[in-house]
Amino acid sequence: MDTGEHGRAPSSASSCHNDRQTISSLIQYAQTNYEHNPTEALSALMQALALNSGPASANDAMNRLRDELGDDIVSHVGSRQARMQRALQIVQELVTDESSLLYQLGKQDILRQAMEDASSVVCTRCQAVVSNARWQQHQRLWCSAIISTGISSDEDTDMSTV
Question: Could you tell me which residue ranges the C2HC zinc finger plants domain spans (predicted)?
Answer without folding.
Answer: 98-144
